[in-house]
Amino acid sequence: MPLRRPRLLILLVTVLFVALTLRLGLWQLGKAQHKRAQAERMASLDKQAPLPWQGELGPTVWLQSFKVSGQWRPQGQIYLDNRIEQGRAGFHVLAPLELADGRWLLVNRGWLPKTVGQQPEVPLPLGRVELTVRMNNPTQRYLELAKTTDAGPVWQNLDWPRYRKLAGAPVVDVLAFQLDGSDKLSRNWPVPDLGADKNFGYAGQWFLFAALAVVLFVILHWKRRDT
């Protein structure tokens, strides 16, 4: 059962399609492996004792735990509305910690449940404090449910340019998540899902498309010998 001689155009289209889908599959596979390596690094970092933070920034410190110290500045505390935890609505409480060099480190102190008819209010400890925090990429965005003009300390979204204007002081380009504390705030920070499994799935789909193209090409150009 020999193959029919395929038309040149069909052959070229098939070859290009297979090459493209294989390339896309390898690209997604590379992304998945990179994310898996990041997840393994995050898991190893969770087992390490927090280090004193020396002001370093960038991807090498994201999701690492550090010890920081300073004084809270209550005039910079804001509440991000509509944050859900275990099916309940509440606020993320963000406040600046003034460091020894005068810069503000914005800290997500934790989650506060919402009480209908009451404005959120969480007092800040006075004097110098020491915290354990996890550094996060400041480009992380919060969901904004509607285009509204925030009034007072309750905001729908963390708007960095607006916050820097409010601060009136240099703000460190990082968002820290507080890990310890004896107040009433909840700090059940979820483990970031980097989406490696999704990329593995995409890679499998592209490889499947390539295999189907080859099988279809063979079937369409196969003929039986005359008997």
From TrEMBL:
Main localization of the protein described in the UniProt heading: membrane
Subcellular location: Cell membrane; Membrane
Keyword terms: Cell membrane, Membrane, Transmembrane, Transmembrane helix
Transmembrane segments: 200-222
InterPro entries according to UniProt: Surf1/Shy1 (IPR002994), Surf1/Surf4 (IPR045214)
Annotated membrane topology: Multi-pass membrane protein
Gene Ontology cellular component terms for the protein in this record: plasma membrane
Family: Belongs to the SURF1 family.
Name the UniProt record assigns to this protein: SURF1-like protein
